[in-house]
Amino acid sequence: MPLPGGAAEKFGNRYELTWTVSCLVDVYQERAERIRIEHPGADEAGAEFVLYRKGIEEFHQCKLGPSHAAKWTLKSLNSEGVLLQLLRFTHSDQKEYHFVTTVGVENLKELSNRARDAADYAEYVPDFLSAKIWAVAFADLCALIREDEDLKMQ
């Protein structure tokens, strides 16, 4: 992770550009229909661009990693507004939110994998969150999302 300041910003811009070009290649190879950079309203969604793929709007946000730590935590994702965007786009079948980063997100990948493996919520909680570490991580995630929702309502 580069030091904070000019070099870090340049490195972050280069990372964002590299990701954007990789999505442009998807358009060129017809795996996506089009890309819209600086889409009006996309900034509100925390997105650098929107990729249109088979009737789905993919809002992409790129971040190298948190400036204050070696990896993302649920709390740092929340403070950056990422969890609010994830919540916003999980309620639509036509929109997706893609958070692209160079470093992992503590616990979120495992919670996501477990959710995909569960048939439904009724199975997820008792069967896939039976270990205390995952039950606590899920409770923390829910609390942060509720906090975001409460702030949004004010």
Give a description of the structure.
This protein is an alpha+beta fold and about 150 residues long. It has six helices and four strands; from the N terminus they run H-E-E-E-H-H-E-H-H-H. The chain has helices at about 5-30, 75-80, 80-90, 110-115, 120-130, 130-154, and strands at about 35, 50-55, 55-65, 95-100. It has a four-stranded mixed sheet. A hairpin with a 2-residue loop joins strand 2 (about 50-55) and strand 3. It is globular.
Structural features:
6 helices; globular; four-stranded mixed β-sheet; 154 residues; alpha+beta
Concise account of the structure shown:
The protein is an alpha+beta fold and 154 residues long. Helices cover 50% and strands 16% of the residues.
Which structural class fits the helix and strand makeup? alpha+beta
Strand order of the largest sheet: 1-2-3-4
Low-confidence parts lasting 5 or more residues at pLDDT below 50? none
Based on CA inertia axes, which overall geometry fits? globular
Q: H/E order of the elements?
A: HEEEHHEHHH
Number of helices: 6
Mean pLDDT comes to 84
What fraction, in percent, of the residue positions are helical? 40-55%
Write the layout of secondary structure elements.
Elements: H1 6-28, E1 34-37, E2 49-53, E3 56-63, H2 74-79, H3 82-89, E4 95-101, H4 108-117, H5 121-128, H6 132-153
Parallel strand pairs: 3-4
Antiparallel strand pairs: 1-2, 2-3
